[in-house]
Design goal:
By secondary structure, the protein is an alpha/beta fold. The chain is 39% helix and 21% strand. The protein is built from 8 helices and 11 strands. The strands form 2 sheets. Strands 9-8-7-6-5-4-3-10-11 form a 9-stranded parallel sheet. It has a two-stranded antiparallel ribbon with strand order 1-2. β4, α2 and β5 form a beta-alpha-beta unit. α1 packs parallel to α2, α3 packs parallel to α4 and α5 runs parallel beside α6.
Length: 247
């Protein structure tokens, strides 16, 4: 289990994470003002939408976010173009970006892409651990869903890289793809120590977001206004659906 501020990931509870998808400080503040009142425990800051990734801009953005969102856990993410993000970023710039976040403790968690070089993610994980910042190692496939055994292997490989949490998102084309993902996560849950975040995207994958608890996914992503991935459900609706599913 992983303790982040006032929540525990991996204790059987499904927590809602809402993304901030904005390019400038004014829009960031406006979205955070809405998210503040939503029934979510985590907020993902999608830095790939930022107009500027200069250190001064990061400081201002994250301090204003924290000032508004108070005790909600902050997850910082730069999602590369290849994995569904808004822009590319070199490995060197990626390392500099996350090093600023870690050294100045601007967030509670960081998302690192498993597709980045092993030495790069290892260095960032070590830096984060020293600062008490948790790491998510993630893999996103916006093209399709690999066979069950390949999904299991991908999750196990990520778990071996010692991140605190592993995350897997796929794009289903059939209901069977959704069941394939859910079954793979159930299988891996008994084999690794880390909590898992997993979802099938798009309309077809909607049930994986709602039924996260049934296959041991500890976080589901919902939206305030702008979505950061296909198939995200509005946060208030998601809270009701989760409560109904548990009941």
């Amino acid at each position: 289990m992983v303790c982040v501020r006032n929540i525990v990931l991996g204790d059987g509870t499904v927590h809602i994470c809402v993304p901030v998808v904005a390019s400038d400080i004014e829009e960031i503040q406006r979205q955070c003002g809405l998210i503040k009142h939503l029934p979510c425990e985590l907020v993902e800051i999608r830095m790939d939408f930022f107009t500027s990734l200069e250190e001064a801009n990061l400081w201002e953005a994250f301090y204003r976010i924290r000032d508004i969102l108070l005790d909600k856990a902050l997850l910082a993410t730069f999602r590369s173009l290849e994995e569904g993000g808004s822009k590319p970023l070199s490995d060197e710039a990626y390392e500099r970006l996350y090093t600023v976040l870690i050294e100045h403790h601007l967030c509670d968690m960081i998302d690192l892409e498993a597709s980045r070089p092993l030495h790069l993610t290892d260095v960032l994980q070590q830096k984060a651990e020293k600062q008490g910042i948790h790491t998510i190692l993630s893999s996103h496939d916006f093209q399709g869903t690999a066979p069950r055994e390949m999904l299991i292997a991908r999750l196990l490989q990520m778990a071996e890289r010692k991140a605190d949490i592993v995350k897997l998102a796929v794009m289903p084309h059939t209901e069977e793809d959704v069941f394939c993902l859910m079954d793979a996560v159930r299988c891996v849950h008994a084999k690794i120590s880390q909590p898992v975040i997993a979802m099938a995207m798009g309309d077809i994958g909607r049930r994986s977001r709602i039924e996260a608890a049934s296959f041991n996914s500890c976080v589901t992503f919902a939206c305030a206004e702008k979505t950061s991935a296909p198939g995200q459900i509005p946060c208030a609706e998601m809270r009701c659906l989760l409560d109904e599913h548990i009941g």
